[in-house]
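Cross-posting from the modeling subforum.

Setting up a comparison between two proteins and wanted a second pair of eyes on the formatting. Protein 1 (sequence, then structure tokens):
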Amino acid sequence: MRDYLALLLLLSIAALLPVVVVFGVVSFLDLSIPKAAQVVGSIGTLVLVGLGGIFAIYQFRLFRQHAPHLSIEQSVTHHKVSENYLAIVVTVRLTNSSKVMVPIYDTLFRIQEFSELTDDLVEELYAQAFIGEEVDNIQWPTLDEQLRDWSPGGITIEPGETHAETYEFVIADHIKTIMVYSMFYNPYSQDSRDGPRGWSATSVYSIEKGEERQ
């Protein structure tokens, strides 16, 4: 919103500038109004063309090669740690595939139950995914989630560099299938034109088979 107000102010100044310059040129060079207007009209055209270019760059993000981007690979394993509990180990590899350094300050890790649910619960969750004319992801029962705050320094990933993060959960051993979700928030994203809200990965992991599906 602040960016739009600044742009509006800039365009307003540009609209008033030719008028101010006309009076300045007339006073300083003692030109007639038509001649001064002709000179200022040429200058005003150049100014407006330049502002139009600035607006196009801002509106359409013509230099998106400088936008941050991460590629994510996620792997899941499990280990029986007691008679009734399993440890879920998730390793996420972040590769900076952009041309700029990418800092990470906030992350979200979540595991959800993806099996052994009642028909009534599945129907309820499916119905909740429809919001008016839009459809959201089905919110499967959350088993656990972790929020990590890396500020003030954050994690910094240079172009071409790969960084790995590992996190663990403990769940009951009767659960057969889980959905694993990882989200690394983009600190530059104020709206959709600044790039994605973040970079995420989702896996469905079968504990019975020890298999992962992206």
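Protein 2 (same layout):
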Amino acid sequence: MTKQPQTPNRAARRLAKSQTRASRSDTVKRGAMAMDDVKLRKEWINSAINRLDPALFATHLPAWLEMVAHLQSRPVGTRGSAAQQPIPRLSVAQLRNPRLNSVAEDTVFAFCIAAVLQSHPEAIVKLESELTNHYGLDFPGAGALALCRHGRETENALDDAVGRIIQARLEGQASDPKDIWNGGLRLLEKVRKSNFVQELSVMLAKWTRQQWTQILKDQLFNLSYPRVSVPPIEAALEVNLNDQAFVASLLLAATGAVDIELEPAYQEHLEAIATRA
């Protein structure tokens, strides 16, 4: 049986369907590529923080901030689709936008906290040099680095406290058990608010474990009523998990050893963090 030739209308409809399928396929591919770009930008900045690589951090900071700005520019319910769209480039002036600068400061703080928790505070000095060389003195996140390097006062009490902790480590100041306790508490508060909470929580838990293990070995004389206060600390240290719950549990266990009485509301707050689901 001879196949009838397609009419112009039928041929046009088949062509339109074919083009639609091709267009959808291209859209899916572009969306997948854009999503990969989002993940890659986060992975690069994560890597810079985890490896304490100032040059890598300075190179990839703009790409990370561009991605965050792109997602923030969309309503909350549409950010998933926004992640599938190309990310526009931003000028250095745009990167200094106050809303975006808060993200930059959080990112710089994450690097500085990681440097202290991994016992490499010198990386912070190198970071300042890299960022200044790339973007000038007024680089994105400069305020956070000023706090960590020079202890500048701001209206944010938590940032000021964390800045002083980092500055003390940079200057090699000695710490007694109460300093370690207060430092662990402030760092826990800061880490929980960070975009890098997952990466920093593990580092903080390992640092807290190491600090209190060392205190029990070398600074028992600095603890109050060690016969009573040390056993709860030892019990908390027996937990092998390195997470926020461990940090909160150890802080609670050590209150007696450093003569700290928590407000009831804050006691409940730490207890909630210490409770694993």
